Amino acid sequence: MSMSDQTERDAPTGADLVKQLQDAGELGGLFARIDAGELELTGDGGFIPALIKAALERGLQAGRGTGTHYLPHRRSRGCVREWYLGWEQNS
C-alpha cells in the first residue's frame, strides 16, 4: 500500500466531518435558523448554492497561480461552467 493510499483511507469523509461538527455543537445555531425559517437552503440566495459558490471561488483563487484553474476556452458541461462564465462577467 502506498503512502497516498493510506492517507486517502485515513482522511475523514464528509459524514465524519458533519458528525464532528454536530458533536462540537457547531451546527446547532445553523439548524435553529433553518427550523425557524430564517435560512433558505436552496434556490436563489439559498445557503447550499452560496456554500458551493464560495467553495468554487476558493478553488479558483487557489488555482490561479498553479495553472490548474478552469479556462473558459476549454469545453465542459454542466452548471459549473455556466456559473464560472457568469462569475467572470460579474467580476
Report on the architecture of this protein.
The protein is mainly alpha-helical. The protein has 2 domains: 1-39, no CATH class; 40-91. 60% of the residues lie in helices and 0% in strands. It contains 5 helices and no strands. The relative contact order is 0.06. The mean pLDDT is 76.
Q: How many β strands by DSSP? A: 0
The residue ranges in which pLDDT falls below 50 over 5 or more consecutive positions are none
- Derived from helix and strand composition plus strand pairing, the structural class reads mainly alpha
Q: What percentage of amino acids are in beta strands?
A: under 5%
Q: What is the C-alpha radius of gyration, as a whole number of Å? A: 17 Å
- The run of helices and strands is HHHHH
The number of helical segments is: 5
Q: Give the distance, in angstroms, between the N- and C-terminal Cα atoms.
A: 45 Å
Q: Summarize the main sheet.
A: none
Whole-number average pLDDT?
76
Count of spatially separate domains:
2
Q: Any idea what the shape is? A: flat
Concise account of the structure shown:
The protein has 91 residues and is mainly α. The chain has helices at 3-10, 14-23, 28-35, 47-63, 79-90. The N and C termini lie far apart (45 Å).
